[in-house]
Design a protein that fits this description.
Structural class: alpha+beta
Strand content: 15-25%
Radius of gyration: 25 Å
Helix content: 25-40%
Largest sheet: 8 strands, mixed
């Protein structure tokens, strides 16, 4: 009877406390976010997975970018090593202000082999310090564990190893880490451990990026570098500080803004100028399908020939909606290229015939797979966004590491112009609705900025295509006015090529023009129902992740 009464009592209960009241997943653990979390894309799959896990744990786009970078430093050190540098576009969802973060690094000043002063650790630390929400240690530790316990070489990294096989076999450090016992460079699927790098990542995790740039540890690093014949000084490290800047802003459609990273040199303005030329007078929208390749080639050559002319500092009033406060208007300063100048840039443009501009600039080489650059993008459900491009100035940089650290040092750029053309970042946001629509980054060859501008404008202004189709299509174009050559991708369709030739273009086929990682949300974020696409470039072996 007692058993029956107990059964009836339990049967009448609405719930059993210790069964139904299970604790929710805590913030910072994968699965904290249910439903839409945003999205990530990177040139190496495990980096994208690391970023996705951070977003599902309740992290911001900046938190995801931090985890993605340190994963790349382990899984693709040929392009994202700790000794390299980069540039990012960052949008803060609280202030809705977009900023450029520059941590490219300067050439070393000491006696010995010249290198680029490492910029990535301090740059990513500055990014996280300003906008991150999850703990720094938690974002670094997965990469540290991967370096210590090993991971399989991905197809993306295996390709970089393949094109760098000579450097690996001739460098004692690279050979000891990235080749087998017989000295054969590692291939896809092989196990890779980086114990020295794991030890150094543990220091970064525990003490922050400052451990590399000042204090006892930094002085020991300099002593070890000097003994190895590397011309790096303690003063170089102390002076290696990332710079926050405004962006280059292009007024876009429907009260939106196109933002490009504020560069160090005039070469870095190419993407912004190409986008402005395409947008001015609604040229891209009005162009027929057969005219668009020609239009893009014209915009590229005119932007290259024009350099950095036409930009001016402007202050615009933006409506800021803070999470805990009501809306307010705030004046924000940008560097802007307005419609009137862009129209002058395209003066004399003819849809049916090439305007042959012979620029007095050095020839630009495109289409070569040199390695040494990579990019990634992240966007979160609150409207935060990050797009970063990184470089070692050649695959594996110098090929030398500071003894005991696993920190591979980057080359000084042989051409600052080539470096700046090879990296790009773009973002689209609304001036008043507090929404972000796009975050994209590009890397690869000197066509990267131009290709990124073409893709950003094309996706946003063409309602009859998707990001997936646009990023996959073989219609990327780059015109070098110095050589009077218009480059198209290998695999471009005959109709596209013939449309260029019929307008007077001398066409050359390149093996590939840039790689893109992009997120595009037609609905804007934040949104009750997000309509987003996150894509990696099928020209590489990366990965993109988002929730349905």
């Amino acid at each position: 009877m007692r058993a029956l009464a107990l059964a009836l009592l339990l049967g009448g209960c609405g719930s059993i406390p210790f069964m139904d009241d299970e604790p929710k997943v805590p913030k910072g653990s994968t699965g904290y976010v249910s439903g839409f979390y945003g999205g990530v894309s990177a040139d190496e799959p495990r980096a994208a997975i690391a970023g996705r896990d951070v977003l599902t744990a309740g992290g911001t786009a900046v938190d995801a970018a931090t985890a993605m970078y340190f994963t790349l430093a382990v899984t693709m050190p040929s392009a994202a090593g700790l000794g390299g540098g980069g540039i990012c576009l960052v949008r803060d969802p609280d202030t809705q202000i977009v900023k450029t973060l520059d941590f490219l690094g300067q050439p070393s000043s000491g006696q010995g082999r010249k290198v680029t002063v490492p910029g990535n650790p301090r740059g990513i630390f500055a990014l996280h310090s300003k906008f991150g929400t999850l703990r720094w240690e938690k974002l670094v530790q997965p990469a540290e564990n991967m370096a210590r316990f090993g991971s399989q070489v991905s197809r993306a990294f295996a390709e970089d190893i393949r094109v760098s096989s000579n450097a690996i076999t001739t460098s004692s450090h690279l050979r000891s880490v990235f080749a087998d016992k017989q000295g054969v460079p590692l291939s896809e699927g092989k196990r890779l451990k980086q114990l020295e790098l794991a030890t150094f990542l543990a220091r970064l995790r525990a003490h922050g990026a400052g451990v590399l740039y000042s204090g006892i540890n930094a002085r020991q690093i300099i002593r070890d570098a000097k003994r190895a014949g590397i011309g790096l000084t303690y003063r170089d490290l102390v002076a290696a500080r990332p710079a926050w800047r405004s962006t280059i802003r292009i007024p876009f459609v429907a009260n939106t803004s196109l933002h490009f990273a504020m560069p160090r040199t005039s070469s870095g303005t190419l993407g912004a100028k190409v986008a402005a030329a395409l947008v001015a007078d609604e040229r891209y929208q009005k162009a027929k399908v057969g005219d668009k390749g020609h239009l893009m080639a014209e915009a590229v050559q005119r932007a290259i020939a024009d350099g950095a002319n036409g930009f001016k500092t402007v202050s615009i009033k933006r409506q800021i909606w803070r999470r805990k406060n009501s809306g307010e208007f705030k004046n924000v300063t940008y560097t802007q290229l307005d419609d009137s100048y862009a129209e002058k840039l395209m003066a004399g443009y003819q849809p049916g015939r090439l305007t042959d501009i012979a620029a007095g600039t050095p020839k630009i080489t495109v289409g070569s797979h040199e390695g040494g650059t990579t990019s990634f993008s992240a966007i979160d459900r609150s409207g935060g966004a990050v797009a970063c491009a990184l470089t070692m100035n050649g695959a594996f940089g110098t090929g030398e590491a500071i003894p005991g650290t696993g920190l591979i040092l980057a080359n000084p750029p042989t051409s600052v112009r080539h470096r700046d053309l090879s990296m790009g970042a773009v973002l689209i946001d609304h001036n008043f609705r507090s929404r972000v629509y796009m975050a994209g980054a590009a890397s690869g060859d000197a066509s990267s900025q131009a290709v990124l501008a073409q893709l950003a404008v094309g996706v946003a202004l063409d309602p009859n295509t998707t990001l997936e189709n646009k990023i996959a299509e073989r219609r990327r174009v780059f015109r070098d006015p110095a050589s009077r050559t218009t480059y198209v991708e290998q695999g471009a369709d005959a109709g596209f090529i013939n449309s260029l030739k019929s307008r007077g273009h001398r066409v050359a086929v390149a093996s590939g023009l840039s790689r893109i990682n992009m997120a595009y949300c037609r609905s804007g974020l934040p949104a009750d129902e997000a309509i987003c696409s996150i894509e990696g470039d099928p020209r590489g072996f990366g990965f993109a992740a988002t929730s349905d």
